[in-house]
């Protein structure tokens, strides 16, 4: 390339075509004509590098080339320890946004420019940059180093700023494993109470307010110690284990020592029953019985366990005093009906009341007998029934604090019903109807005999639904002369449980040719 013009305007046009910018005249010029060429030389006396010599990590550092010769800048190149850092195509500095100790070293710059149509290179002498540590990595101090559950623990994050930077604001963060506990301007953090689950690796971090410098401490493992439960004690409220019936009873289980979550359990020693359980972070737990009754009487103890083994208290007697409640009388007969000759159990029981309780049994206000319940509960009296024992029965409970009488229970004593069978049929649920009375079997006359009567017979025999009312003569042979006709007419509604419960007309005119029969669905 040759220059057509050598005046100022021509030079400017030429430089503009190269994309360069003019400088103040000066520097080194290479003689000769023809195309521009690079001329190398050392101009340390004219060009220098401008930067601070001592900085702290996190500072912003700007490295500049100063005293650049006149001419047009082609490029400015920055070096650290003779290695190229950056190249700029205009007169700008090299910026280190956040200096670190690794940025310490020897810095220089080199300018390539066009002066009087000739390219020149100008290189500064090296300048040393030292980046100092703003503060060392912090250390975490844990006090105490082996805390016990429920106690406080203090974490201290310690580091040191240089004297000339003592006003730098620092932020302290505390961590357990990967969980942030706190982050603010305080270098000390107190946890009011630590527990087993607070065990883990603790560490802290110190950072400047802009977070340009941030350094963590080494991790410290903290194991929160637990204390086994000991000296388990069971107490009651009211004290001494004595409570009136209906009053509130509280069983209090406590330990002299022990930390962490503790499982408290309450037990009946006399029955082996566990009556309650609670798990809580406490040395004391309460089990409330809102209204004590006689069944709550007994020997109680409690246990406590926080994972180091079960500890048990001594046993304590609980007594509930109060009058016997109104008893309930229950009559227990062998069958669905009370029959002459049956043995009936009269059971009387008061649901509450301090033992021992004496029970008395009455028939129509005449005492039949009595029985004691020394430990509470109910008592029974057995009675053999006669026809005269029909009537009202009651019982009385008395523990010396006031007798209570039950409601009356009515008992009807009936003669045993006759036995019944179906004779000569294809199966036991079909045939001639026969009944037993006083040890003799007889038949039933078919006068008025209908499906309601058959339904009762089928029900009594457990043979299902009634099907037909056939004549008894259809089931030969006829009944013998030694078998009487015992029932002339049975007036059943169809709802009775047995033929004996139906109204009956005694025999006055019937023979075996008129015997009744029955067919039921069951086989």
Offer a quick outline of the entry.
With 523 residues, the protein is mainly beta. The protein has two helices and 45 strands. Strands 1, 3, 5, 6, 8, 9 and 10 form a seven-stranded mixed beta sheet that branches. Strands 20, 22, 23, 25, 26 and 27 form a six-stranded mixed beta sheet that branches.
Structure description:
The chain is mostly beta strands. 4% of the residues lie in helices and 46% in strands. The chain is elongated and about 165 Å long. The model is unreliable at 1-45 (pLDDT under 50).
Write the layout of secondary structure elements.
Layout: H1 8-18, E1 38-40, E2 48-50, E3 54-56, E4 61-66, E5 72-80, E6 83-88, E7 94-96, E8 105-115, E9 118-123, E10 127-132, E11 139-143, E12 153-158, E13 170-176, E14 179-184, E15 188-191, E16 200-208, E17 214-216, E18 220-222, E19 230-237, E20 242-244, E21 249-257, E22 262-268, E23 274-280, E24 284-289, E25 298-305, E26 311-312, E27 316-321, E28 328-332, E29 338-339, E30 343-349, E31 357-363, E32 366-373, E33 378-384, E34 391-398, E35 404-405, E36 409-411, E37 413-414, E38 419-424, E39 430-437, E40 440-444, H2 451-461, E41 466-468, E42 485-487, E43 489-491, E44 503-505, E45 517-520
Parallel strand pairs: 1-9, 3-10, 20-27, 29-37, 40-42
Antiparallel strand pairs: 2-4, 4-7, 5-6, 5-8, 8-9, 8-10, 11-12, 12-15, 13-14, 13-16, 16-17, 16-18, 19-21, 21-24, 22-23, 22-25, 25-26, 25-27, 28-30, 30-33, 31-32, 31-34, 34-35, 34-36, 38-39, 39-40, 39-45, 41-45, 43-44
């Amino acid at each position: 390339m040759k220059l057509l013009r050598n005046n100022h305007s021509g030079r400017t046009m030429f430089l503009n075509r190269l994309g360069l910018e003019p400088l103040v005249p000066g520097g080194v010029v290479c003689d000769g004509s023809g195309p521009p060429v690079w001329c190398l030389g050392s101009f340390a006396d004219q060009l220098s590098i401008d930067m601070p010599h001592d900085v702290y990590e996190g500072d912003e550092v700007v490295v500049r080339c100063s005293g650049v010769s006149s001419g047009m800048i082609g490029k400015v190149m920055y070096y650290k320890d003779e290695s190229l850092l950056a190249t700029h195509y205009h007169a700008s500095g090299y910026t280190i946004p956040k200096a670190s100790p690794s940025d310490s070293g020897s810095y220089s710059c080199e300018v390539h420019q066009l002066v009087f149509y000739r390219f020149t290179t100008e290189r500064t002498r090296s300048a040393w940059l030292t980046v100092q540590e703003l503060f060392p990595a912090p250390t975490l101090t844990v006090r105490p180093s082996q805390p016990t559950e429920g106690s406080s623990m203090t974490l201290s994050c310690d580091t040191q700023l240089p004297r000339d930077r003592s006003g730098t604001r620092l932020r302290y963060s505390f961590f357990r494993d990967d969980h942030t506990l706190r982050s603010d301007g305080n270098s000390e953090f107190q946890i009011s109470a630590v527990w087993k689950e607070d065990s883990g690796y603790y560490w802290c971090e110190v950072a400047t307010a802009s977070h340009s410098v941030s350094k963590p401490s080494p991790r410290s493992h903290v194991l929160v110690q637990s204390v086994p439960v000991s000296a388990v004690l069971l107490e009651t409220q009211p004290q001494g284990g004595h409570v009136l019936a209906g009053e509130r009873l509280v069983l209090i289980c406590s330990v002299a020592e022990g930390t962490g979550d503790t499982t408290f359990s309450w037990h009946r020693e006399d029955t082996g029953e566990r009556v309650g359980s609670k798990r809580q972070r406490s040395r004391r737990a309460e089990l409330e019985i809102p209204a004590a009754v006689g069944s709550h009487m007994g020997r109680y103890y409690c246990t406590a366990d926080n994972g180091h083994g079960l500890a048990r208290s001594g046993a304590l007697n609980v007594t509930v005093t109060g009058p016997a409640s109104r008893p309930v009388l229950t009559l227990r007969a062998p069958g669905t009906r009370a029959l002459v000759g049956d043995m009936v159990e009269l059971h009387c029981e008061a649901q509450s009341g301090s033992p021992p309780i004496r029970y008395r049994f009455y028939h129509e206000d005449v005492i039949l007998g009595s029985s004691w319940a020394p430990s509470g509960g109910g008592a029974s009296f057995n009675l053999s029934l006669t026809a005269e024992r029909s009537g009202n029965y009651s019982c009385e409970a008395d523990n010396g604090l006031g007798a209570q009488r039950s409601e009356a229970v009515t008992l009807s004593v009936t003669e045993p019903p006759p036995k019944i069978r179906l004779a000569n049929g294809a199966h036991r649920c079909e045939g001639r109807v026969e009944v037993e009375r006083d040890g003799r079997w007889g038949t039933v006359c078919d006068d008025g005999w209908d499906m309601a009567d058959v339904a009762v017979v089928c029900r009594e025999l457990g043979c299902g639904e009634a099907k037909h009312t056939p004549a008894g003569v259809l089931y030969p042979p006829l009944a013998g002369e030694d078998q009487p006709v015992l029932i002339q007419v049975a007036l059943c509604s169809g709802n009775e449980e047995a033929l004996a419960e139906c109204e009956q007309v005694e025999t006055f005119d019937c023979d075996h040719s008129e015997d009744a029969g029955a067919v039921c669905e069951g086989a």
